[in-house]
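Can anyone check this?
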Amino acid sequence: MKLFHYAIICLAIFLNAMPLQAQDNIIDEVIWVVGDDAILRSDVENVRLQMQLEKQHINGDPYCVIPEQMAIQKLYLHQAKLDSVEVPDAQVFQQTERWLNYVINQVGSKEKLEEYFEKPINTIREERRQMVKDQQMIQSMQQKIVGQIKVTPSEIRSFYTRIPQDSLPFIPTTVEVEIITKEPVISLEEIDNIKSKLREYTEQVNSGQREFSTLARLYSEDSESAKRGGELGFQGKGVLLPEFAAVAFELNDPKKVSRIVETEFGFHIIQLIEKRGDRINVRHILLRPHVTQGELDAATFRLDSIRNDILNGKFTFEEAAMYLSDDKNTRNNKGLLVNQDMDNYNDRSGTSRFEIEELPAEIGKVIYEMQVGEISKPFTMMNSNQKEVVAIVKLVSRTMGHKASLSDDYQALKGMLEQEKQEEILEKWVEQKQKETFIRINEKWKNCDFQMKTWIVD
C-alpha cells in the first residue's frame, strides 16, 4: 500500500544518522519542539546534506520542508509508541545490513565509511538500525490509521468524471511477455578448473601466504562484496541461500576456509569473520563457470528446435515454458514474467505488465519490434543470477500509451482513488494530532509556506 504523499517515509530513512559536515560555523539551536521532542538545526542540516549527497530533490525550501516532515514523523512515532506498535527485529536487521553494505560499496571500504561519518562502524550501524525501526513503525502506524480502504464501482466512476479531461493521467505503453530459457551445459573440465582455483586460494589462506580479503578483491566474481574484501555483513540464516548458509554456519575458526560450496550463482569458498547470536558475518569468493561459444551454440540450437515445434503446433509456448524452460522463476507461471519492481512502487508492481524500460535490456530490445503473439528467435541474455543463458520470448499483449479511460484502466483508477482516500485520512489524523500536541516553532523558522497550514496558531 502506497501511503502519504508527504515524502515522510523517504525522509525517515535519513534522519539523525549522518555526520554534520561543512558547517563548522553553525551554532546549533532548537528550531521546533513537538511534544517532548526537540528538532535541532543540526538535525535538519544533516538531512539536507544527505539528500544532497543522494541527489534527492526537495520541492521547496529545504529549511521549511525538512523540519515539517520531521515534525510529522514525530507525531506518528509518538502515537506508535502509545499504541505499542512493534516491528520484526529480523526485518529491521536485514534492511540495516543491506543499507550498510550498499554505502560501504559506495565509498569503497569500511574504513572510509567510518572516516566519512567520523564514527565507528558499530555506532553507524546502531543509528541506522534505529532509523529503520522508526521508519517501519511509521509505516505500520499509517496502515493502522488507514485500515482497509474499500471503494465501490460508483465511487470510481464519480472519481473519473470529476477529473478534468486535460488532467487525466497518462497510462504508459505496457506489455506482457512470456519467456523460455535454456542454460548452456557447462563442461566438467570448466568445473574442475574452477574448483582447482578455489582449492589453490584455500591453500594460500590456510598456509598464511595471502589474506582471504585480498584474494576476494582480486578474483571474486561477486563484484559488490569483492570491493569489501568479500565481506557480506551480518546475515541471518534465512537471508542466505540454503546451501551457502549450511556451510557458513558450520564455521568456527576465522583462520580456516570452508569447503567449496555450489549454489545457483556458481562456486564459493567462505571464511568466518564473526558470529553474533543467530547472525553471522563472513567473507566469500565466488567463481562462475565461463560458458564457451560452443556451449552457447548448443543451447541456441536446442531452443531454436523448441521454437519450431511450437510454431508447428506440437505444443504451446506455455506448455514448453512449464516443462522445458530452465527459468525456475517463471516455469510455474507458464513462462509469464512478473513485474518485481517493488522499490519503485507503481500500479504495475506485482502484475504481469511492464513498461519496455522495466524489462531486462536484452528482452526490451527484442520485444520492441515484435507483434502481439509473435515468438522471437533465440538470443542471449544475463539471467537474475548473472548467468549467460539463451532465451526466446513471446509478446502476449501490448497496451499503447493513452490517457486513462474508465473502460481500459479501471484498476489503475481504483488504485488512484484508494490512494487519495488514504491521504485524506492521514492528513485529517495529523491535523487532529497537531491540536492535541504541544508544538512550538522558533520565530526565525516560522516564515515558511508549510504544506500543512495548521502548524502555527496565532
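Reply from J.R.: I decoded it. The chain is about 45% helix and 15% strand.
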